[in-house]
Amino acid sequence: MSTIKDVAKAMNISIATVSRALDGYDDVAAETRQRVIETAQKMGYSPNRAARQLRRQKAETVGFILPANAQRFDEPFFMEFISGLGDALSEQNFDLLVANAKTEEMERSLYERWINSRKVDGIVLNRIQKQDWRVQYLTNANMLFTALGKSQDGVEYPHIRIDGAQGYVELVQHLLANGFSRMAFIGGHENLINHIDRLHWFQSALEKFGIPVDSKMCPSADMTSTGGYIVAGQLLALPAPPNAILCVNDETAFGVLHAAHEHRLIIGREIAIAGFDGVQDAIHTEYPITTLKIPVSNVARQLVYMLLAMINGKPLAERQVKIEPKLIITESTGG
Amino acid sequence: MSTIKDVAKAMNISIATVSRALDGYDDVAAETRQRVIETAQKMGYSPNRAARQLRRQKAETVGFILPANAQRFDEPFFMEFISGLGDALSEQNFDLLVANAKTEEMERSLYERWINSRKVDGIVLNRIQKQDWRVQYLTNANMLFTALGKSQDGVEYPHIRIDGAQGYVELVQHLLANGFSRMAFIGGHENLINHIDRLHWFQSALEKFGIPVDSKMCPSADMTSTGGYIVAGQLLALPAPPNAILCVNDETAFGVLHAAHEHRLIIGREIAIAGFDGVQDAIHTEYPITTLKIPVSNVARQLVYMLLAMINGKPLAERQVKIEPKLIITESTGG
DNA sequence: CTGAAAGCGCTTACAG
DNA sequence: CTGAAAGCGCTTACAG
Questions:
Q1: Could you tell me the sign of the dihedral formed by the alpha carbons of A252, A254, A260, A265, in that order?
Q2: Are residues B192 and B140 in the same domain?
Q3: Statement to judge: residues B283 and B313 lie in one domain
């Protein structure tokens, strides 16, 4: 509605003074500042973002692209993640630009547009892969970013890493205590860091308890509940089926639940089922599953804090943050 | 990286011509245009958004605020909604600004900031209430918006309306055919249009089949699965409990499922359960519930198309679009 | 068909 | 402590 000129004119001072007063410079008379703030408030003045961005050469905006497949699974995860990003950003008067890409090509061209047109000052990444073109691309383009997960591209970048090694030890111990010793692990896309890490933690935990690792017991699905359902069906049809199925994510575990149900197995007694992420819809879904819970919203917030520090040219306290998931035990593994 | 000047200099032409060539004006020599496009592409030039916005007085951005409570329920709904918005917008080179408000106050100040600082050209609204301050606020502020749902503020605005009257008739008929005649309805927040409409359709459908409406059978919960669980527990403890429970949304129905399970009722035989929205996580959740499915993503797309037409000053084909949900029958109501 | 120039609304050295 | 002025990178009437 109103511009800085309107405010200046209304007060008979220069636009420079209005600008400085509003931006908190300390070389403005306290009384002047006070009057400017009041007048701006009254007139509903807020600096035009485009003009400010153009002048400051900063967008005050952070971008996040929903991976192509986010619609199909991990919805609660992304929802919570976006909420966390939005929260932390709006605290700092930054905005969150969101897009969703159907294909990798679209994703790439979105990044390109954002970067070339200076729409964003930084980007937050998710679902990192072992080799991740986004890491390479953003690094080459000199675009600041933080990520949940560390790729293996030989690029060092600020990130948050989930460390579930100890969590898996606790989970396996819990399963053993409840008499579930034939454990299987249903993984996901093999290039996903989440898959690689979680499978590794699972196998290490087995070894720690002296249980041999059987690769036939570690099939991969596609991280959807449908995938979990199909692969669980195969596992349960084995001559010596597992009596515990751990999953790379909760969604897969939901499918396993369904398959076990069809096989007329009593969940938590004849078979144990566990997931990962802890983004259960709510407490009152039919079978709450045992899971390793990630504080998704906090993770997102922290990624924003790190990114904003970088954008503002401040030194980062830590470039690598480690977060341990928390084991949530429910009746799906015998309570 | 590069600006319009760089491109112009590289080609020895004026920036005006570069701008016109790239923007598709027809008063540019075809050959010049071709060369400009190639050069821009090669140099990775994309017009600086802030400069363009400032000059054009348009943000080429649409805003959407996640309601304060979105974290707690309806996650898949919002996820799909946002995806639909993002899709349709990026097709037109528009961006989607997303924020989430914890309180109504925060939400209001976010809108205020977006409007006063010209961050967005239009806004999409969701979860419309009977009296909706947002409708009033945006109308007064002269900000363009479209919404899923029509409030009763006496303001006429372009919107999409879900019409489930026929769907409820089909659902009630289906339940009767399967022998479920004592029907209850668990509603939600009483000022929500969704609640008001759906309860009304339910009662009309009952009347249509000559079933008396019992207000004790129409309690309200809070649209979460926990709320559904609690209220279903109360219904099932009645002297003459219902044998069918219809819910204002799927989330509530999930809680009902849990409660029925605890009461040792066989779902789909001893009790029928139905939801609304059709945003089931996936096919292989434990009990897929009968629901009235809304094409969420399409709805979001259409809201964007309407909004963009308004932003571009084009006439709207329809200012009021009606969409009918589709009845999805599963074993939760006897298959 | 092309170019020179104005101006969108800010912020920020610079001068006083 | 305050103001005049430059300039961020575009788009678009206007002139030729």
A1: positive
A2: no
A3: no
In this structure, what are the phi and psi dihedrals at residue A315, rounded to the nearest 5 degrees? -70, 145
| CATH code (residue A106) | 3.40.50.2300
- Total beta-carbon pairs less than 8 A apart between chain A and chain B: 190
Q: Would residue B55 count as lying in a domain?
A: no
Residue A274 has φ and ψ, to the nearest 5°, of -140, 150
Q: Is A41 on the interface with B (CB under 8 A)?
A: no
Residue A170 shares a structural domain with residue A272: yes
> Is B116 in CB contact (< 8 Å) with chain A?
yes
CA–C1' distance B27–D15 (Å)?
15
Residues of A in contact with B87 (CB under 8 A): 100, 102
> How many domains, chain B?
3
The pLDDT of residue B282: 45
Question: Cα separation of B48 and B60, whole Å?
Answer: 12
CB–CB of A282/A92 below 8 Å?
Answer: no
Distance (Å, rounded) from C-alpha A210 to C-alpha B286?
Answer: 34
Q: Tokens standing for B70?
A: 């979105």
B156 and B178 together in one domain: no
Q: Are residues B232 and B143 in the same domain?
A: no
Its domain, for residue B8, covers 4-47
Mean of the pLDDT values across residues A281-294? 73
Residue A224 lies in a domain: yes
Instruction: Tell me the chain A residues in contact with residue B53 when contact means C-beta distances shorter than 8 Å.
Output: 49-50
Statement to judge: residues B290 and B171 lie in one domain? yes
pLDDT the model gives residue A282:
45
Residue A70's pLDDT is what? 53
Taking chain B (335 residues) in consecutive chunks of 10 residues, what is each chunk's mean pLDDT? Answer: 88 91 79 89 91 93 81 69 91 90 87 91 94 94 95 94 97 97 95 96 97 94 89 96 96 90 93 89 64 94 95 89 95 90
Claim to verify: residue A275 and residue A192 sit in the same structural domain: yes
Per DSSP, helices labelled H in chain A are 4-11, 15-23, 30-43, 49-56, 75-91, 104-116, 133-140, 165-177, 193-208, 225-236, 250-262, 296-311
Taking phi first (over 0 means left), then psi (-120 to 50 degrees means alpha), and beta for anything else, what does residue A118 get? Answer: left
Give CA–CA dist B192/B220, Å, rounded: 12
The answer to whether residue A90 sits within a structural domain is yes
User: Is residue A139 pLDDT above 70, yes or no?
Assistant: yes
Query: Taking the C-alpha atoms of B117, B122, B127 and B129 in order, what is their torsion angle to the nearest 10 degrees?
Result: 80
Find and list the nucleotides of strand D having atoms within 7 Å of a protein beta carbon. Answer: 1-5, 7-13
pLDDT, one tens digit per residue, over A70-117 is 555 566 788 889 889 998 998 888 999 999 888 888 889 889 989 989
Same domain (yes/no): B94, B127: yes
**Residue A52 belongs to some domain of the structure:** no
